[in-house]
Each structure stands twice: as structure tokens, then as C-alpha cells.
Specification:
The complex is a heterodimer of chains A (326) and B (258). By secondary structure, chain A is mainly α. Chain A is 71% helix and 1% strand. Chain A has a two-stranded antiparallel ribbon with strand order 1-2. In chain B, helix 3 packs across helix 4 and helix 6 runs parallel beside helix 7. The chains are: A mainly alpha (326), B alpha/beta (258). Chain A: Belongs to the binding-protein-dependent transport system permease family. CysTW subfamily.
Chain lengths: 326, 258
């Protein structure tokens, strides 16, 4: 049975929605589709440009691009590889993540669930502000304050825990992998904390009350309802932080000693990363040198992509338990 | 195992606003008590004062006494957490933990009360799900997410979760208002069964439901907008619905309210 629905002014409701569609819907649909296509086109254009620029340098390379631990693209027999750079990028970013995530989650929980409302407002504002500080400021802080400051603690770690390879090595320096990772950790902490806080604030009241009504303490409520619900969001936040740490250029370029070793020793004067290397070498780069740097940039791009895909996989694996359905 | 609840002179506030005033009543063990009344008259607020859930809202506080078997729940040194372990609650909207499986949902409260062996938890989960008339429907998929069940099943899952910790009292805040009639009937049957083990207090907007399930009924009302809610009348359910002593009660149950 077809019942006709009428609007207040007598016209058919279906007819009205159809006329509306022709007026507002179509242009909007084209505008948004166009924006989407434009974005993809720009991405593709960048990728093509980078690959085209990189190929001649990669052809001229006499070393293995993925295995060589030097960077001499300007030599008569160019030899360069991203092995040490890629290692330094991932290693420093992971160290930063390991240090930043627990603190960031703690800060986010404090703001969302423990702090009195007024203090939470102020703290939330400060965290947002910290997230907006330019990275060069963190870099300058790292090299003028943190690097000299870290000499003492680094020596302490080396003397007492030196038997662990991580803290081993012959020379201890302020400008080390540890200092760079600390600066990165401080840099990515606000963004992870800010996103985690938003996620924790979105935990439905009903879930927290369910836990409370079972006799859960505040910490048990957080463990039972808040953290599991916020898990995908925190993972996304951590990945965003990891991406930022891996792509960070100027802060680590100031601190790293621009070596080309692969070493897990975090206290010794060593360290480099793809982005820092680009910043250090771009000025003096010749044609081949530029191509080589662009190739390294592509590798960074791929690493970031893999990390993000990994994060999506982790989040999707427990999707049916994510609470999205509830 | 169930115990008597005695409330005397209870007021509850949201900030400066007094939501309910001077409520006194006695609730006998192993009975079902229904709270009825118009929206905003403080039924749910009062219910939440009984397991100290009212005070979790910022600025909310309670004055007066609630005695469970003679002990004041608001006495000095009484932990709200331990009160809530004795007095379970089922909410208006089914709220199973979405990140947990059916099994984990039922076991959630047990984990709070210290370590237990796997077989013991298995046993309690099964008994609780059977007690909530849900076992036969979910026994083959205990590892599946609780949020994947239908609304009525989710609510019974929440009941199973609440009774798994063996509370003395079960508070139900409009437990059927988000459910279809068949699921509602399932919950009402369940309440009649649970009565032998627990004291049940239910807030409901459904007058037929109050008449069907409860032994005693309290009618709540407020004098006017912004005034605190009060108990107008509390009596045997059959009396409230056939021969109430107050005119306001009669007006409300016959639909001549307001």
C-alpha cells in the first residue's frame, strides 16, 4: 500500500526532497568527489616526481642502496645506502615511543579522570599548547640543555648497567641516541596525550557506571572500561607520534652526530636518521646527491606507510570487540 | 541471605538543587519493590542513593540514612566500593562492556574480588548465565563479544554480570524501557525467579509492569517544577493499583495525571 506523505504546505514530501537534491546535493557531491580525486592526483604526482628524480642516482650508485653504511653520492664513484639511516630512524623513534606512550597515557588519564575539573581544563590547554611548539625549539633545548645535562645520568647508567649492550660502549656522550630519543619523546608526548585524552573522554558514561556498580575502584574502572575502550585510539595516537618522530628533522639533526654505524648502544656518540641526513646533506648535494637524498626520502615514506598499516591491522584485529557496534 | 533495607529521612542533591526530600521506607528481604511516578520525580535518583551511585556525579550528595541489615551505608568508614559489591545494579540501557566477550562480561565483577581458579570462575559464569535465563542461548559462543547480542539478551547479560558477584540487593533502573515486549516478558519472568535469592527494587514507567512483578509499590511525585521529589504513598502493589489512599496516586495510575 502506497501512502503519500504530505508536508505542511501540502506538497508531497518525496517531491520536496527530490527538488532539494537537485539544488544542494549535486554540487556538493561533485565538490567533495573532486577534492578527493585532487588529493589522490597530488599524491600520485609527488610519488612520480620523487621516483623519477631518484632513479638516475640509484643507477649511478656503486654500493647496495639497502646495505651500504656510508653516504658518498658526490664522489666520482658514488656509494651510498640507507641501512644505517633507516636503522637510526626506526630505533630512535621506537625508543621515543617506549618512553613517551606510558607517560602520555598517564597524563591523559589524569586529565580525563583524576584531575579536578578546573585543573584538567588548564592542563589540557597546556598540553595542546606544547603540541604546537615548533620542533626546532625542542632541538635547541635538546642541544643546549639536555645534551650537557645527560652526561651525568648517562655515565651513571654506563657505570652500573654497562654490562647490558644497550648501555655499553667505550665513550659516553651527551649527544647520543638516548638524548635524541628523549627529545623526540618530549616532542611527541603532547600529541599522544592530547589524542588519548579525547579518546578517554569519549568512553560512554554507561560503561564506567557499569564498572562502578560492580564495585570497581577508580583504577579498576579505568582498567575495565576506559583503557580497553580507548585502546584503538591510543594505538592510533602512538602511531601518529611514531610517524612524527620518524619524520622529525631539525631537532634530531642538531643532536645526532651524523655517524653511519648500526649500533644499539644508546649512550655512545653516534646516531643518524633519514630526515636528519637530508637536512645535513641537502645544501652540499650535487645532482646525484639530490637524487640519493630523494631516494632516502622515499624509503622514509615507505617505512611510515608500513607502520601505519601495521597499526591499522592491530586496531582491526579486535574490531568486533572495539565497542564501535555498541 | 538477603537483608532488610531501612531508609530514613533521606535527601539527595545535585549541587544546590534538592532532587529528593525526606524519603523514608522499609524494604523487606526477598521482595520486589516497584518505584513509579512521572519523569523527573527522583525515582532513579533515589535508587542510585541505595548503592551510593548518586555521589559519582560531580556535585551530587546525600543526607540521611540507609541501613542494610542495620548498618548505615553512609556511615563513617564505609567504602562506597564495598557497598556497590553488596548492592548490584542493572541500568536502563543494556551496557555490557563492548571490549569483553560474553564470558568476560559475566566474570568482570569476580575479577575485582580477588583471584579465583579458572574452574571456579567457569562455574560461577555458568550459574549466573543460567540464573539470567541466558545460558542456553549463549553457551556455544561465550568467547564472542557481548555487544553482538540482541538488546534483550544484552540486558540479561547485564543481569548475569550483576548477580555473578552474589549481591544482597539488585537495583533495576527501568531495565525494560529499551526492550521489545518479548524481551521485557523474559526479564519479568526472570525477576520472579531471582526474588528467592535477592531483594529487588525496580524503577519503571510501565504501570502494568509494576502491577505484574512487584509486591510493594512506591509512588513518587513532586509538588511542582523545581521542587524536590517525595514518596507520596507506598503500599502493597495490589492496594496501590486498586484502592490507593492518595488522590494523586489514583490520578497517576488511571492516567488522569497532570
Amino acid at each position: 500500500m502506497a501512502a503519500t506523505v504530505h508536508t505542511r504546505d501540502g506538497g508531497s514530501a518525496l517531491g520536496r526532497s527530490a527538488s532539494r537534491r537537485s539544488r544542494g546535493e549535486t554540487p556538493f557531491r561533485y565538490a567533495s568527489t573532486g577534492a578527493g580525486i585532487l588529493l589522490l592526483a597530488i599524491m600520485a604526482a609527488i610519488a612520480v616526481f620523487l621516483v623519477v628524480e631518484a632513479i638516475p642516482a640509484l643507477r649511478a650508485n656503486t654500493g647496495g642502496f639497502f646495505t651500504t653504511q656510508t653516504w658518498e653520492p658526490n664522489a666520482t664513484r658514488p656509494s651510498f645506502g640507507i641501512a644505517a639511516l633507516a636503522f637510526g630512524t626506526v630505533f630512535s623513534a621506537l625508543l621515543a615511543l617506549i618512553m613517551a606512550v606510558p607517560v602520555a597515557v598517564g597524563v591523559a588519564l589524569f586529565i580525563s579522570h583524576y584531575a579536578p575539573r578546573r585543573l584538567a581544563g588548564v592542563l589540557g590547554y597546556v598540553v595542546d599548547l606544547l603540541a604546537a611548539v615548533p620542533s626546532v625549539v625542542y632541538g635547541l633545548w635538546g642541544i643546549t640543555f639536555l645534551a650537557p645535562f645527560m652526561v651525568g645520568p648517562s655515565n651513571f647508567l654506563h657505570d652500573h648497567l654497562g654490562f647490558i649492550p644497550l648501555f655499553g660502549g667505550d665513550i659516553v656522550a651527551g649527544r647520543s641516541m638516548l638524548t635524541a630519543s628523549l627529545v623526540l619523546a618530549v616532542m611527541i608526548l603532547p600529541i599522544i596525550a592530547a589524542i588519548s585524552r579525547e579518546v578517554f573522554l569519549q568512553v560512554p558514561r554507561a560503561h564506567e557506571e557499569a564498572a562502578l556498580a560492580l564495585g570497581a575502584t577508580r583504577w579498576e574502572v579505568i582498567r575495565m572500561a576506559v583503557l580497553p575502550y580507548g585502546r584503538p585510539g591510543v594505538i592510533s595516537a602512538a602511531m601518529l607520534g611514531l610517524g612524527r618522530a620518524m619524520g622529525e628533522t631539525i631537532a634530531v639533526a642538531l643532536i645526532f652526530q651524523a655517524t653511519f654505524d648500526i649500533s644499539f648502544r644508546i649512550l655512545t656518540p653516534q646516531g643518524n636518521s633519514i630526515a636528519a641526513n637530508i637536512a645535513n646533506r641537502f645544501g652540499e648535494a650535487t645532482q646525484t646527491g639530490r637524487g640519493a637524498l630523494i631516494a632516502s626520502g622515499l624509503v622514509l615514506f615507505v617505512i611510515t606507510l608500513l607502520v601505519n598499516m601495521g597499526a591499522r591491522f592491530i586496531v582491526a584485529r579486535r574490531k568486533e570487540f572495539s565497542g564501535a557496534a555498541a | 541471605m538477603s537483608q532488610q533495607i531501612q531508609v530514613s529521612g533521606l535527601d539527595a542533591y545535585y549541587g544546590r538543587h534538592k532532587a529528593i526530600e525526606d524519603i523514608s521506607m522499609t524494604i523487606e528481604p526477598n521482595t520486589i519493590t516497584a518505584f513509579i511516578g512521572p519523569s523527573g520525580c527522583g525515582k532513579s535518583t533515589f535508587l542510585r542513593t541505595l548503592n551510593r551511585m548518586h555521589e559519582v556525579i560531580p556535585g551530587a550528595r546525600v543526607e540521611g540514612k540507609v541501613l542494610l541489615d542495620g548498618e548505615d551505608l553512609y556511615g563513617p568508614g564505609v567504602e562506597p566500593v564495598s557497598v556497590r559489591r553488596m548492592i548490584g545494579m542493572v541500568f536502563q540501557r543494556p551496557n555490557p562492556f563492548p571490549t569483553m566477550s560474553i564470558y568476560e562480561n559475566v566474570a568482570a565483577g569476580l575479577r575485582l574480588n580477588g583471584r579465583r581458579s579458572k574452574s571456579e570462575v567457569d562455574g560461577i559464569v555458568e550459574t549466573s548465565l543460567k540464573g539470567a535465563n541466558l545460558w542456553n542461548e549463549v553457551k556455544d559462543r561465550l568467547g564472542k563479544p557481548g555487544a553482538g547480542l540482541s538488546g534483550g539478551q544484552q540486558q540479561r547479560l547485564c543481569i548475569a554480570r550483576a548477580i555473578a558477584v552474589r549481591p544482597e540487593v539488585l537495583l533495576m533502573d527501568e531495565p525494560c524501557s529499551a526492550l521489545d515486549p518479548i524481551s521485557t516478558l523474559a526479564i519479568e519472568d526472570l525477576m520472579a525467579e531471582l526474588k528467592s535469592q535477592f531483594t529487588i527494587i525496580i524503577v519503571t514507567h510501565n504501570m502494568q509492569q509494576a502491577a505484574r512483578v512487584s509486591d510493594r509499590t512506591a509512588f513518587f511525585n513532586l509538588a511542582g517544577q523545581g521542587q524536590p521529589g517525595r514518596v507520596i504513598e507506598m503500599d502493597e502493589t495490589s492496594r496501590i493499583f486498586t484502592n490507593p489512599s492518595q488522590k494523586a496516586t489514583e490520578d497517576y495510575i488511571t492516567g488522569r495525571f497532570g
